[in-house]
Design brief:
Layout (H helix, E strand, L loop, with lengths): L1 E2 L1 H13 L6 H8 L8 E3 L2 E3 L1 H18 L7 H21 L4 E2 L6 H4 L4 E2 L4 H22 L8 H21 L5 H4 L10 E2 L2 E2 L8 H21 L4 H17 L3 H25 L5 H34 L1 H19 L15 H30 L4 H17 L6 H11 L3 E3 L2 E3 L11
Antiparallel strand pairs: 1-2, 2-3, 4-5, 6-7, 8-9
């Protein structure tokens, strides 16, 4: 095992927060942008700084449980964890030899020549990552920071680094790309229309797109909530919109379109059900805003159409679609049980879940996510965290299969920290007084 320079920094910070419980959520938030940055190299696998910082959360969760404290969400979370870990250690043995998309093999090389299922280090790694991820969610949900929007730290760090990388790409300023790249994974530059696609601190543009879309959702809804620092939040919105655009990623386009549709449907339905009326000033502002959108809409439609057509016609797009279809074959070959967490890696998070933990595992996971998000949905103060979570899940369903992506896990944790609504009022309960979620 060895540590990278960034890993050494977070190892030192993690040692400090072992004795400073209140700092754990902030340290975890600081690790959020480094999804594909290596902190440790263990058994040939890159371990991101997030999982280094997650260890204190696991230790304190175990300590709280042993001391008799009843942890909010604990019951169902532990049940889902047990099912996922059991799938990782048993299903690869039961269905050994089944054709799969081996996680380390790459999609393009395996669509035509898939690998054979066998129990591997990837199963143990993904099981361990999932345990640490659940510990982070339980810890933050039961020990929320005094400032609810602590994710602004992580999204802010990622935004600054994206702008720095954008300046390096188009203005030639220095950017320490090698400091952030994964040590064992392959990274490469790609181009669209002759222009280099921005990938920032990530190994590929689609991961930057996922982060930027989630950050956009967070900062837009934060802008609607805060009264101070609106200029700073607005700058973050512009910066992430630019990062998403210059990634030239289908994930960014499809993610933003899908997110916009979901937001419109949710708030439109709420408006109709509540019988609301549009204030005159809002109606005038909406009409004025619609004018420039109408004027530039032909350019937007042409850009999106050309981009989508190019993606659909590319070999990478075809291979991604084929990997998802192949995952349905895996599901059928395993009697809808899947091949175990960490055994196969298609393009989409949805198809990854179906092919690894099966129909039952996916159903449990969806129920678990809904339980975690329900308090935030009822509390407008936590809508930035709620919509950031929805945004990252949408992007993952489109083209990002990592089941323990730090951005998604921390968004879930921050949303789950929303206080319960009791008698119409939001009340934040101490961990010792919170009942266990059954």
């Amino acid at each position: 095992m060895s540590a990278t320079p960034l890993g050494l920094i977070f190892l030192a910070l993690t040692a400090v927060v072992l004795f400073r419980r209140a700092w754990i959520p902030w340290l975890l938030a600081a690790t959020m942008p480094f999804v594909q940055t290596s902190g440790l190299i263990f058994g040939g696998n890159d371990v991101s700084p997030f999982f280094i910082a997650a260890v204190p959360a696991l230790i304190w969760c175990i300590g709280d449980a042993l001391s008799g404290k009843r942890l909010r969400y604990a019951g169902f979370s532990l049940f889902v964890t047990a099912v996922f870990v059991l799938s990782a250690v048993t299903l690869p043995v039961i269905f050994e030899g089944t054709p799969v998309l081996v996680p380390r093999g790459g999609i393009d090389d395996q669509v035509m020549a898939p690998g054979a299922l066998e129990f591997s280090i990837s199963n143990l790694a993904q099981a361990g990552y999932f345990v640490l991820s659940v510990a982070v969610i339980l810890y933050i949900a039961n020990n929320p920071p005094k400032r609810p929007h602590f994710l602004a730290l992580g999204f802010g760090i990622g935004t600054v680094l994206s702008v720095w990388a954008l300046a390096a790409t188009y203005l030639g300023v220095f950017f320490p790309q090698a400091f952030f790249r994964p040590t064992t994974a392959e990274t490469f530059d790609s181009y669209y229309g002759g222009a280099q696609r921005l990938r920032g601190i990530f190994a590929e543009p689609s991961y930057l797109a996922t982060f930027s879309v989630a950050a956009l959702a967070f900062f837009v809804f934060l802008f609607l909530r805060v009264k101070k620092r609106r200029l700073l939040v607005g700058a973050a919105i512009v910066a992430n919109a630019a990062a998403a655009y210059f990634s030239f990623s289908g994930t960014a386009i499809a993610g933003l379109v899908a997110l916009g549709i979901v937001v419109a449907l949710v708030y439109g339905a709420r408006f109709l059900v509540m019988g609301g009326k549009v204030p005159p000033l809002a109606a005038v502002a909406g009409c004025l805003a619609a004018v420039p959108l109408i004027l530039i809409s032909p350019r937007i439609i042409a850009y999106v159409s050309d981009f989508v057509a190019g993606k659909l016609g590319s070999s990478s797009g075809s291979n991604r679609d084929a990997s998802n279809v192949f995952s349905l074959d895996i599901l059928g070959d395993t009697y809808f049980l899947g091949v175990g967490l960490g055994s196969s890696r298609p393009s989409s998070f949805l198809f990854m879940m179906l092919s690894t933990v099966g129909v039952i595992g996916l159903a449990l996971y969806v129920i678990w996510i809904v339980r975690l998000l329900r308090p935030a949905a009822r509390n407008p103060e936590y809508h930035p965290e709620l919509w950031a979570t929805i945004a990252v899940i949408i992007c993952k369903v489109i083209a990002e299969p990592n089941p323990s992506n730090p951005v998604m896990i921390l968004c879930l944790a921050a949303a789950a920290a929303a206080p319960a609504i009791v008698g119409g009022d939001a009340k934040r309960q101490s961990p010792s007084r919170v009942t266990t979620a059954a």
